[in-house]
Amino acid sequence: MSGARRVRRLGRCVGACLFACAGTLPGHALADPNDYVLTLDITAGEREFDAKLGAATHTPAGSPAAQAAALAWGAGITDYWMTELYAQFANPVAGSGGGGFDAVSWENVLRFNEPGRWPLDLGATLELERPRFASEGWKYTLGPLLQADIDDIQVNANLLFTRTLGGAEAGPLLLGYQFQIKYRAAARFEYGLQGLGDMGPWKSFAHATAASQRLGPAIFGRYKLGPGRSLGYNAALLLGTTAHAPERTLRAQLDFEY
After folding, report:
1. Label partner for 246 (CA 20 to 30 A): which of 14, 56, 59, 228?
2. Can you tell me whether residue 73 is helix, strand or coil?
3. What is the CATH number of the domain that holds 116?
4. Which neighbouring-strand residues pair with 238?
5. Strand, coil or helix: 167
6. Domain count of the fold of the chain
7. pLDDT for 74-113, tens place per residue?
8. Whole domain around residue 30: which residue ranges?
């Protein structure tokens, strides 16, 4: 069996597993509307500033925010390690307090193999988040990242495990997922599909309707501004596919690389 056929079969299996899991696990809406899909595109010496924005409509009770934004600076330390520091800002859902500055986070993405050497690129992420209020404790997120390039198509599938330690919000280990399919039509305009899901405590298997799942079309692109500099964008309109997900979420990311 050729490498491309193996990747296609693996991709179908990953997608089926993700949707099967999403249909059986309980969940609580965890993600902010400006959350984005992690990829393994890392270049040593690359620096970037970026802004992540998002807004959700008909946000169900328990979601962290109806609007959110983040400002970040990141760097490719090596071809296998990307690190990023960002400040998160959020507006609360109706009936809750707070808003404004929400948290500071340190995110790391690791790639374990040379791009294209294997049919599937393997990586991982580790993120530490410190909320605005000390009483909320610390939050960490970690999990495997998968990426495959098949001709002009890039496929990403990620599993994310999140837990809050200490404070009033301490709780069990929670499971989420991300996936993305992107067709490289042209450097300045690419299109595809994105999906994000929160499935609650990873050991629980009940109440399928409690999961929060969002799915929808996405666009991507990058403009060259000169030697070593570029401006990139990606955006998606995600539609809630479960009762516990926002009805619609519009998210976008703009980054300047140098």
Report:
1. 14
2. strand
3. 2.40.160.40
4. 249
5. coil
6. 1
7. 999 999 999 999 999 988 655 444 568 989 999 999 999 9
8. 3-257
